[in-house]
Each structure stands twice: as structure tokens, then as C-alpha cells.
Amino acid sequence: MLWDIFWILAGVACIIAVVLGATSYLTWYERKVLGLIQVRKGPNIVGPFGLLQPVADGIKVLCKETIFPARAHVPLFIFAPVLTFFLALASWAVVPFDKGLVLADINVGVLYILALSSLSVYALIIAGWASNAKYPFLGALRAAAQMISYEVSIGLIFVCVLLFAGSLNLSRIVEAQKDGWFVFSLLFPMMILFFVAALAETNRSPFDLPEGESELVGGFNTEYSSMIFAMFFLGEYANMILVSAMISILFLGGWLAPFEGLSFIPGFVWFAAKIALCLFVFLWVRGTLPRYRYDQLMRIGWKFFLPVSLFWVVISATWVLWRGYGVG
Amino acid sequence: MIEAVIFYMFAFVLMAAAAACVSVRQPVLAVLSLILCFFNAAGLMVLLGAEFLAFVVLIVYVGAVAVLFLFVVMMLDVRAPAAEPKKRQRFLRPAFAVVTAILFLEILVVVFSSLSASDVAPVIEADFENTRLLGQVLYTDYIYPFQMAGLLLLVGMIGAMALTLTKRKEVKRQKLWDQLDRRAGEVLEVRSVKTGEGLL
After folding, report:
1. Higher pLDDT, A315 or B118
2. CA–CA dist A55, A256 (Å, integer)
3. ipTM for the assembly
């Protein structure tokens, strides 16, 4: 009993350490990739290849002064970044890193992820409202509308994958791809849709309108500084990694090796490699595409993504009825 | 033991949040405590073993419905109402009391009838996912009520669209296809300008 609790806590500590490490190095990865895209070197002063840059950034942000706006609702103002950070970490509880390597192997893992991602809207709304200022409030309203719109399509895309896998359990979804990943099936268009919807869901460029600096200063986090800003920042990057992990699990076969001959390499290495690949596309998009206008964002969300994903649910259901679960 | 502790934690926060929801002056805080309420209700459902329903409550009520509540309350910028309600609101009080009493009686009836029926409740096999079970029940035994509920929602959806779908003449709409269909030759003219003469 006591040992069970100890092992669970050890697992939680491991996951938090890995996710936080990955998150801080994602900032380094982003700056390197953006640097290469723009033909410069990126961070290269602190440590070899600038590898210690995240540490330096962390120390800098810890030493800064925390400023609360005079008319802010202080408890909620602090609660918002804490909520973002908490949700970004809590979602990892159900992610299978390797065969059997998962903290909570629950039957409704997909729903758990979806529920937590729908909760993360609140952090942004609360931040915007608690700041009691115009720009954060506008940013929060944009974030709320944007995330709700894209969550609908993300839910429908999940349904397509679930129809193919025949289970809501993330480990079983990966197992269902043993004979062929879901990318190489009827679900390929859904992967592209999921990726674009994920860009909108995580407020990443080209859909980073909630924090569009050219119109809203900094959006919902305009008034934030120091550690509470860092929590927003880390939460956003942890969410990016989580979404990449979801793409790997739902479409790219999670911990499975691409060929049978390569399965001597441990599963979590494959999983990490797939996540790194997805993250590269995230950064590539950021370095390439200009920002969308808000009405364009809403139009493709409701008038393209929603009907297409709904139609694809029908197609997937027909296919599964005809050929049975899985790709074969 | 641990389950009891968790149950009382959820139940206590649920009651406290519900009380806060109806007694807090600031509308935004009231909506936030309502959300806390939903969240704890979902926690109680997980304890009951109904994890599918719990997460659906989180996704639908917390993730969508309550966000819209919060949205409206924030957009309208509702200030805390004055201490004394208006005449019309005072007139409505008995009506609210009656509705609340009926709802409360309903809950009591459900609770007591389920208490007496608990020993004949069907035993669910442990390895049966309750998502699958729920799906099977919804699409076989309760197919008509289920479809009726769907129809009701459809009617509500069409109603909402019909209410907001008005063509206003003063609003300029962007015609995407007209814009994309434009060719450079139709709108651009290339001229060579001589120095000192200008275009005209």
C-alpha cells in the first residue's frame, strides 16, 4: 500500500522532471531552428552550442520582480498561470511512453486529454479578466472563442481515430497500429487537420492571435512578469510537446518502430524522435507563415474543419463496418 | 479509507462552491464557482466508476457551456447588482421558490427510489468498459429517447441560427472568391512614365 503510493509519486516526479527538461530545451530548439531558417546561428554563447541558454533564461526570470497591476484581482491573477502549468503537466499522466510505461493506464485516456485541454481555456480567460486591462481582456476573449471552435473539430478527429482503434485507451490505440500506422490509412487527411487544429489550440503561429503583439501588445499575458509569466510560457511549450505526443500516439504509432528490424531500439526513443519531428514542423510553420486574420481563422475553423471532420467520421465508420478495426 | 476521504473532499468543495455560486456578489466569481461545482461533480462520478460520464461532463459542461456563460458575463460587464432587488424581481421570488422546491423533491424521489432498488441493480462485469456498455444501451434499449434528444438539440440549433441569420445591408462582407479570382491584368496597368511629364 505504502510502496504503491511511493512508486506513484516517483513516477509523477520522473514525468515532471522529463517534461520540464524537455520544455526548457524546446525553447532552445525553437531558437536554433528559427535561427537556421533565418540564416543566423541562434543561441551560441552560453555553453557549447548555447546548450546552457535555457538555464540562464530560467535564472534570469527567477530574479525578476513580480508586478501586480493596481486594479487586478490578485488571487485569480496568480491562479491563472498556475492552472495552465498544472494542466500542462497533469495531461502527461495518461501518455504511454513505451509499452506498459504509463502512469495511469485508464480506459478513457483520450477523454481525459480532451477534458484537460478544454479546461485550459479557463486559465487564459481568467488571466485576461483578472488583469483588469483592455489588451489582456481582448486577448482572453479571442483565446476563448478560438479554442472552443477548434476543440469541436479536434473532438471529431479523435472520434475518427477511436473508430479505427476500437478503444479509448491510449496504449490500446498504439497497439492497434501494429500492422500499420494510422497515417498510412484513410486517416491521413485527419492527421493534417489535427495538426492545424492543434496549432490553433495551442495558440501557436500562424494562429497566435490571442497574443498577437502587433495589435494586442502581449495579449492575455501583457500584465504578467517574472515567475508567473514563466509559468504561462512553460505551460504553452509543454502543451506543444503534449500535442506532438498526441499526434505521435494517434497517427504515428506511438512507441512502435517503423520497421520490424529496428525494434531493438527502445520504444521511448522512437516516441521521443516522433515528438521531435512533430515539434520541428511546429517551429518550421512559425518560421515560414504569416499570422492569420481573426475572421479567416474562424472561417476555416467552422466552415472547413468542422464539416470535413464530421464527414470523415461517417467515412471512417463506414470503413470500419466494412473492414473491421485497424488498418488491415 | 482513502476513497472515503476523497469522497468527502469532493463533496465538501462541491457544496461550498454551490453555496458560493448563489451568494457571491460578483457575477464572474459566481460563474467560476459554478465551474468548480461541475468539476467536483465530475470527480464524484469518477469515484462512482462512471468515468465516461465524468469526462463528458467536464468536456461539455465545463469545457463548452460554462465557457460561454463566462464569455457572456464578461462581455456584458455585469456589475454586482444593488443590494435591494427591483420590484419585478421581488414579484418573481415565489415562482423561483416553487421551481426550486419541485427540483428538490425530484432529487429526493430519485435518491430514495435508487436507495431501495440498489440491491436489484444489475451487476456489471469488471472487464467491461463502461463506454462500450453505455453505447450499447443508448443505441438499443433507449434508441428512441436518444434520437428524440438529438432532434430536440437540432431544433434548438436551427432556432438559434434562424434568430441570428439576418441579412444586413450596411455590413460589407468579404467575398473571398471574388478576391481570389482577380487577375493582375484586370486591375493593373503598366505604363512607362517620361521624366518631367507625369502620368496625365
Report:
1. A315
2. 33
3. 0.78
Contacts of A300 (CB under 8 A, 6+ apart): none
Residues of A in contact with B80 (CB under 8 A): none
| Residue B91 CB burial class (10 angstroms; 0-12, 13-18, ≥19) | exposed
Domain boundaries in chain B?
A: 1-78, 125-164
Which stretches of chain A sit within 8 Å of chain B by CB?
A: 76, 106-108, 111-112, 114-115, 118-119, 121-122, 125-126, 129, 137, 140-141, 144-145, 148, 151, 155, 167-168, 295, 299
SS3 of residue A101 by DSSP:
strand
**Cβ contacts of A299 on chain B, cutoff 8 Å:** 176
List pLDDT tens digits, range A225-242.
888 888 888 888 898 999
3-state secondary structure of A98: strand
Binned at pLDDT 50, 70 and 90, residue B110 comes out as confident
pLDDT of residue B86: 63
Mean pLDDT of A271-297: 88
Cell 468515468 found at: B51
Please report how many Cα atoms fall inside a 13 Å half-sphere around the Cα of residue B46, on the Cβ side. Answer: 20
Instruction: Residue A111: list chain B partners with CB under 8 A.
Output: 51-52, 55-56, 59
Whether the CB-CB separation of B32 and B70 falls below 8 Å is answered with: yes
CB A218 within 8 A of CB A211: yes
Averaged pLDDT for residues A72-88: 88
The CA distance from B76 to A19, in Å, is 39
Question: From CA B78, how far away is CA A85, in angstroms rounded?
Answer: 30
Report CA torsion sign: A278, A284, A285, A291.
positive
Is-cis flag, bond preceding A48, omega within 30? no
A110, three cell numbers: 483520450
Fold of the B1-78 domain: Four Helix Bundle (Hemerythrin (Met), subunit A) (1.20.120)
For B67, the closest of A114, A144, A155 (CB atoms) is A144
Q: pLDDT tens across A159-209, in order?
A: 988 888 888 888 888 888 888 788 888 888 889 999 999 988 888 878 887
DSSP 8-state secondary structure symbol assigned to residue B199: -
Instruction: Output the CA torsion A156→A160→A170→B44 (10° steps).
Output: 40
Q: How far is the C-alpha of B36 from the C-alpha of A262, rounded, in Å?
A: 48
What is the Cα–Cα distance from A125 to B74, expressed in whole angstroms?
A: 9
Q: Side chain identity at A313, as an amino acid letter?
A: V
Integer Cα distance of A281 and B151 in angstroms? 42
DSSP letters along A233-266, please?
HHHHHHHHHHHHHHHHHHTS-TT--SSGGGTTS-
